[in-house]
Amino acid sequence: MNIGIVGLGLIGGSLAKVIKETTSHKVYAYDINESSFLEAKLLNAVDKKLSQDNINECDFVIVAVYPSAAIDYIKKHAKLFKKGAIVIDCCGVKRGICSDIKPIADKNGFVFIGGHPMAGTQFWGFRYSRSSLFKNASMILTPPDNANITDLDKTKKLFTALGFGEVVFTSPEEHDRIIAYTSQLPHAISSAYIKSPAAAEHKGFSAGSYKDISRVAKLNEDMWCELFLDNADKLADEIDSLIENLIEYRDAVKANDAVRLKQLLKDGRERKEKIERGRG
Asked: Which are the contacts of 237, defined by CB distance < 8 A and separation ≥ 6?
């Protein structure tokens, strides 16, 4: 099977590497940065360059670039995809791209399935890609309502073969609502947290908790700005909810109200334990 990959950054590069290391599929790849493609070719992570002349040879095309660039690429190449080819994006938001691309896919005879691999690091670019990035990770898929079960099964089998531990099917709306909490809010928190004047003086006074909460402050601001704004309504709701909760803690601390503060901390601990037991 021939698999096209658009974008050889952390996600696209890691996909190329794991496909070549664990399957017999051929990888056709394209990156706007020629040096990324040449490095991937040198490391045997790709077989050939993906182009307008050979994109119709690909059974799958995985588009691993920013949302606006993904939409633009798919629109420009819509007439070139093989009929019945499965095109999957890897963007961290789903509503916008799925609503834009579905009618184009229907019109041009290819299958579009929204995708989001739940894996990553605070680094980006091909140099940080690795074949083990997706080991036991979750792959979220947001297929259209009229998706063919055979296409879904084929897609699930591909990602399972690449080491993903779970393939989750959901709607674009549900994806964006939950991802605002599990992914986007933590990045916003980390970015805001590190701006405290105390951060510059943390050496010798910090351990795991500082490292955990500050790690993803080292982010790609171009990508995360786009993701935040593409999911602005859901993310704003989560930020508002967090602020309301923090105000309760702040007020208890300022009032030296040990009873209220202890209850807030107890509520948080019990909520965490309940979630870990799978009872929400």
From this structure: 180
